[in-house]
Design goal:
By secondary structure, the chain is an alpha/beta fold. It has ten helices and five strands. It binds iron/sulfur cluster.
């Protein structure tokens, strides 16, 4: 049986996943006392303020070959990007955030309203759930890198169009090359299908390792936190996916 620290138990509880505990450690009073700080930690009042500082934006050609750019030039290029129509409706680009040398790369779909406003991926309620999912793995946002398939918000949060993904994909590819993660976690159908270039359903993509061209890191697919908020019964499957990713990473290190 997996042994969870009390902190991991807190976050699993916040994810809505029950963890079996020995009777002596599972009194209602103890659980209630221990849950309070964890729930407070993922409350909307606390923002995880690790957004990468926006550099001074220098003019960059939209035709720039990004495959050799360093982090700063790449970020500048994205901030200036007008390759697709989404630049007209964005508040700002959402480049990505976290540890540029991370083992874990988390890839979502596209910025939503909160992300567009704040310039950081996975903020708002879905971001809080992602934080809880990471904490349950003993990870924080500072331990991983988080990015999206698209760097600009599609209006009304519609699905990304094929031409938008085509125009934007080189940025994520360069981020993957620069980070050199050990494992990639694709969150949701849109991220998974675009990353893996497939129309296969998310249900059939889960539970196995996938491989993509630009990296040797395996890709593991799970649900998007926004979907989990609407379908909490799927949180257990998501937890299985996270444990699968963790065991994959551990098997590489052993
Ligand atoms: S979505 Fe990507 S390609 Fe389109 S304008 Fe934004 S950064 Fe450029």
């Amino acid at each position: 049986m997996t042994n969870f620290t009390s902190r991991q138990q807190d976050y699993l509880a916040a994810m809505g996943i029950d963890v079996w505990l020995p009777r002596e450690s599972a009194s209602a009073e103890n659980i209630e006392q221990e849950r309070q700080p964890a729930i407070a930690e993922i409350a909307p009042t606390e923002s995880v303020a690790i957004a990468e500082a926006q550099p001074q934006v220098e003019p960059v050609s939209p035709d720039t070959d990004v495959s050799t750019l360093n982090w700063e030039s790449l970020q500048t290029c994205v901030a200036e990007c007008r390759r697709c129509d989404l630049h007209q409706s964005r508040t700002q680009t959402v480049f990505g955030v976290g540890n540029r040398h991370a083992d874990w790369l988390i890839i979502g779909e596209a910025p939503g309203a909160d992300e567009d406003r704040q310039g950081e991926p996975f903020v708002g309620r879905a971001g809080q759930l992602l934080n809880a999912m990471l904490q349950a793995l003993d990870l924080s946002r500072q331990d991983v890198y988080i990015a999206n398939i698209l760097k600009c918000r599609p209006p009304q949060n519609r699905d990304p169009k094929a031409d938008e993904v085509a125009h934007c994909s080189s940025y994520l590819q360069r981020q993957i090359q620069l980070i050199q993660p050990k494992v990639i976690l694709a969150l949701g159908r849109i991220a998974a299908q675009n990353l893996l270039q497939t129309n296969t359903t998310l249900g059939r993509l889960r539970g196995r390792l996938h491989h993509i061209e630009m990296t040797s890191a395996p890709v593991i697919v799970t649900y998007h936190p926004a979907y989990l908020l609407r379908s909490p019964l799927e949180k257990r499957k998501s937890w299985e996916d996270l444990l699968f990713a963790k065991s994959t990473l551990e098997s590489m290190d052993s």
